[in-house]
UniProtKB/TrEMBL annotation:
Belongs to the LysR transcriptional regulatory family. Residues 1-58 form the HTH lysR-type domain. This is LysR family transcriptional regulator. Keywords: DNA-binding, Transcription, Transcription regulation. The keyword Transcription applies. Signal peptide: none annotated. SUPFAM superfamilies: Periplasmic binding protein-like II, Winged helix' DNA-binding domain. It comes from Paenibacillus cucumis (ex Kampfer et al. 2016).
Length: 303
């Protein structure tokens, strides 16, 4: 079908005549008339009759106008959809996050983002570091929010948000609570850690290797941060963890920090994406939002 002819026909009916349709479409009146007559010939049906000098729709014209209205309304919806997608008002974002940001940072960031981006669908998965990067490279996620040592990873673009300290923590009644001890003494303690593949666990092992110490004794393992913290609060073992996770518990006396000599490690919170790829508009807006929220949160902690 000649859609241009259909559009002219629709305009004539919508605006109540050839003259007004020509003005609205910025086309000469004779051109509109001749092209609509050609459109009628192409269709093989009569669309307009006349009552004196007034054009009126035939029954076929009335039915065609109903289809034209639906078609051009759908066109407007498509245009609006494309515009919303282009502006980041709509879209689907698949995001993966390691346990630290997933449990302690993302819920607030995403909740505030959704208040102004209701039509953006977010699918969030929580995983350890290795799984997060696997999802990124398998195109199962567009963005990975990472908390760890910040080591480089081939094919990944890193957008560092901020850093926080890594702490050793124990139960407040532990003999080492609040004490300044050596790494050798600390490593003699049983540790409660996350599963293999966790960046923090690998970092603790690397710390031992660097200082020529045996691997840490991980006597209890969980697949989540909250479980490991709860076990230490219950009075067993030690944990090596981001200060973001336990700062409040330490301040409230539910956990105690152990000061290990010559160990001052930082934990990097970063947004990771596939290198060389452009994010969708909605994902770009989410990244910008996270940057803003992270900056505000980090400033509040430091002050």
């Amino acid at each position: 079908m000649n859609l241009h002819g259909l559009r002219l026909f629709h305009a004539i009916v919508k605006y109540g005549g050839v003259t007004r349709a020509a003005e609205e479409l910025n086309i000469s009146q004779p051109a509109v008339s001749s092209q609509v007559k050609r459109f009628e010939r192409e269709l093989g049906i009569v669309l307009f009759g006349s009552e004196g000098r007034k054009l009126v729709l035939t029954d076929a014209g009335k039915h065609l106008m109903e289809y034209a209205e639906r078609l051009f309304m759908l066109e407007l919806e498509v245009e609006q959809f494309v515009e919303d997608m282009r502006e980041g008002k709509k879209g689907l974002i698949r995001l993966t996050a390691t346990y630290l940001p997933a449990n302690f940072l993302l819920p607030r960031w995403i909740a505030t983002f959704k208040q102004t981006h209701e039509d953006v669908e977010l699918v969030v998965s929580t995983s350890n570091t290795q799984m997060a990067f696997d999802q990124l490279f398998r195109y199962e996620a567009e963005i990975a929010i990472y908390g760890g040592s910040g080591v480089s990873h081939p094919g990944v673009h890193w957008d560092n948000l901020f850093e926080d300290e890594m702490w050793f923590v124990v139960h407040p009644d532990h003999p080492y609570a609040g004490q300044n001890i050596t790494l050798h003494e600390m490593m003699a303690e049983p540790f409660i850690m996350r599963e293999k593949g966790s960046a923090t666990r690998e970092r603790l092992a690397a710390l031992c290797t660097t200082n020529n110490l045996p691997s840490p004794r991980i006597t209890l393992q969980f697949n989540g941060l909250n479980e490991t913290i709860s076990a230490v609060k219950a009075g067993y073992g030690a944990n090596f963890i981001s200060s973001l996770v336990v700062r409040e518990d330490v301040n409230q006396g539910k956990l105690a920090r152990v000061y290990v000599q010559n160990v001052q490690l930082q934990n990097t919170i970063a947004i990771c994406t596939r290198a060389g790829e452009q994010l969708t508009p909605a994902a770009r807006q989410l990244v910008q939002w996270i940057r803003k929220e992270a900056l505000a949160m980090h400033s509040a902690i430091n002050h």
